[in-house]
Amino acid sequence: MKKLVVALSMVAFAAIAFANGPETIDLSKAFNVKSPTKKAVMFPHALHQKNNQCTDCHMDAKGGKDLKGADGKKFVAGEVKGTANALHKNFCWPCHEKKQVKAGKSCTTCHK
Ligand code: HEC
Ligand code: HEC
Ligand code: HEC
């Protein structure tokens, strides 16, 4: 019985870990950055799940590829190039501003 409970809880844990997606995501790969001038952003996904709602960033509470822009619409990255790119302006930066994240717009907070 004890073994069964342990086995079942391990299955449940694995399911949760999987449903939450990767712990860290290389966003230069996810957004297919073609000629990077900055270091690739290794996005701390698990950390962001602690103090934000899934639906702050995803169109759906299950997560997945459909992200929600800061404008509340389905996020479209387009070609990620230069400092005026959509990830800065319509995804990462507005929330860091709103939540007053320390050094939230410093280049080296994300590109390191
Ligand atoms: C601060 C923003 C943010 C929050 C909060 C967040 N995510 Fe994500 N999540 C992302 C980004 C960015 C990606 C990468 C999307 C991509 O690869 O196109 C991602 C990817 C994922 C993926 C993998 C999608 C795939 O098919 O590769 C899953 C699953 C996921 N998130 C689930 C969740 C769940 C569940 C929550 C809440 C517990 C959550 N996320 C909270 C930003 C966030
Ligand atoms: C919905 C709000 C929200 C969005 C969108 C968001 N962040 Fe954050 N981010 C936070 C908060 C809040 C913190 C402060 C850390 C904490 O306490 O959770 C943070 C902290 C960070 C940190 C510092 C982590 C540390 O170790 O101190 C990095 C790096 C970061 N974010 C990267 C990103 C990147 C890259 C994006 C866009 C792909 C992004 N964030 C989008 C809310 C957000
Ligand atoms: C909150 C996180 C965050 C901060 C702060 C940030 N960036 Fe980015 N930046 C990103 C993400 C995410 C991408 C797209 C993924 C990638 O390039 O790895 C990106 C892409 C870029 C790109 C296009 C790709 C490339 O490598 O040429 C440039 C240029 C850029 N950032 C410059 C800057 C500069 C300059 C600063 C400081 C003023 C800065 N970024 C601060 C998250 C951030």
UniProtKB/TrEMBL annotation:
The keyword DNA repair does not apply. It comes from Calditerrivibrio nitroreducens (strain DSM 19672 / NBRC 101217 / Yu37-1). Transmembrane segments: none annotated. SUPFAM superfamilies: Multiheme cytochromes. This is Multiheme C-type cytochrome. The keyword Acetylation does not apply. It holds the Pfam family Cytochrome_C7. Keywords: Signal. Residues 1-19 form the signal peptide. Gene3D superfamilies: Cytochrome C3. Residues 41-112 form the Cytochrome c7-like domain.
